Amino acid sequence: MLFTREPLLCIICYLSVSVASCPKLNSAEPPDANATGAELQVKASAAKVGPAVVRIRYSEKQVGTGVIVTAEGHIATFNGDRKASAPNERITVELTDGRHATATRLGWSGEWRIAVLKIVGAEEEGWPHVDINPCLKVRAGQPCFLMGYSRDARDAIKKPIVRASSIEQSAFPHWCVTSEDKSATTGGLFDIEGNFLGITTRTRWPTHTCVNIFAEYWPNLVGGKNLDRLRLTAKRNTCMVNKSPERREKPDDNTSSIERAKSSTVRIEFAGKPAGSGVLIASEGYVVTHSHGRLKRPGDEVAVAFADGSRSQGRVVNTNPVTDIALIKLTGNGPWPYVTWGSSVRMQPGEKCILCGYPRSHSGKEPAVNEARVVEPNDLEWSHLLWTTDYGLQGGESGGGVFDEKGRLLGLITGYRIAPKPRAAFHVRVEVIRNQWSLLHDLPTARNRNP
User: What pLDDT, in 10s, does the model give residues 199-234?
Assistant: First the structure.
């Protein structure tokens, strides 16, 4: 599977799966005499927080949902690709009482897919808002509701849609996943008492960035900072894999960079079907890969095939569907070939890189190897994504590796965008993996076993 992007629009290609619809409640509906106590509580809470849930109109064709979180008019919302022209844009905010206001963009994060806007001007009694409370817990199995607007700019609904749901996975305090939903509604996630839990950042498998991320980086977000640049260009040593002995080049080492890249790139299978590619990053058998397509869940068992034809079983340790990365631990006997870290932030436009992965149409034992060059889209701000020329990425290559000319890892293949031309490929930077290592390796993710 691959992500394909149009400007500011992500079209995700998924495996065919059956999805159960969630109850849809219109926030303006009168109480139902046959409603359960939980349904009545959701309706009451939705009525309470509804004035803070706003439609955001970025342009004639692009709309979204935000949640006002301060009386001064700060709005927590989803962030897609960040246009280079974004700081100068004027955005229209539509409130449930019919008022329209203008807002400007402040700080943002592509890694966590969030942004903060600010309504221009003051309201004498303060804007309707909900509080960000980082002390709240998000638990698997917890009932909740989603509240927001369709992403279809033609939708004339004036009130936000409410959908009852439950927490299916919780990696508190960073992200959570709610029960499956066929809608394309973005917006806020609330517990049944109306407490603000997070912002919807992916819709097909409803995934939410918890409010704790907003709270942790609030000064930078309000200050208009690019969190990706702050987090990913800082000198850190947050990854325990760094403590593993790294393969170092020797004068008599005749292994080419391509051979190193190929030996560390693997094919992943789930339930007997291809599920993308991955990269070995430690001799202990840790594999990083993507999380889109069929959502990988902690504890899922997978099969892994190597370039030399050997195979091993593995288990998903954790997954971050917000950032689109997952960690797998091989259960077979090692040691395993693995790749050393590169630096994507040092790569300059025009520099050559190597991409390795297993397209679904590829039947060989070894991964397909292609060359590309780093590009810097002039319409987008610097982000957690490394961009390269696109040689024609195919489904199945997602999760494969992007390597420099010495065979060091620069990022994970993620997808491509089809416009503006020429088509370009994007990849999650290796610095994201290093920064999130402790989350993927150590953070427990609870699953709802009784949905």
Answer: 999 877 789 999 999 999 999 999 999 999 999 998
Are the CB atoms for 117 and 103 separated by under 8 Å? yes
Average pLDDT over the chain reads 84
pLDDT, tens digit, for every residue of 360-370? 888 889 999 99
- The closest of 56, 219, 204, 40 to 132, measured between CA atoms, is 219
Please state the φ and ψ torsions of residue 368, each to the nearest 5 degrees: -70, 140
Instruction: Give the integer Cα–Cα distance in Å for 188 and 131.
Output: 12
Strand partners, 374: 388
Q: What is the mean predicted confidence (pLDDT) over 131-158?
A: 88
Beta strands 3-6 and 409-417 are parallel
Q: Between the CA of residue 347 and those of 84, 174, 195, 239, 430, what are the distances in Å?
A: 20, 29, 43, 21, 12
Q: Could you tell me the two tokens for 157? A: 């609904």
Q: Are 205 and 109 in contact (CB under 8 A)?
A: no
C-alpha–C-alpha distance, residues 427 and 402, integer Å: 8
Q: Exposed e or buried b for every residue in 37-54, given b needs 16+ CB within 10 A?
A: eebebbbebbeebbbbbb
User: Which residue in 437, 438, 440, 417 sits closest to 427, CA to CA?
Assistant: 417
Question: Taken in order 134, 139, 145, 149, is the CA torsion positive or negative?
Answer: positive
Question: What count of Cα atoms within 13 Å lies in the side-chain half-sphere of residue 271?
Answer: 5
Model confidence at 323, in pLDDT bands (50, 70, 90)?
Answer: very high
Chain-centroid distance, C-alpha 444: 18
Phi and psi of 8, rounded to 5°? 60, 20
Q: Which residue has the tokens 């592509």?
A: 110
Burial track 207-225 (b if 16+ CB lie within 10 A, e otherwise): bbbbbbbbebbbebbbeeb
Pairing, β 63-68 against β 100-109: unpaired
Tell me the C-alpha distance between 304 and 365, whole Å. 12
Question: Are 301 and 258 in contact, with CB atoms under 8 Å apart?
Answer: no
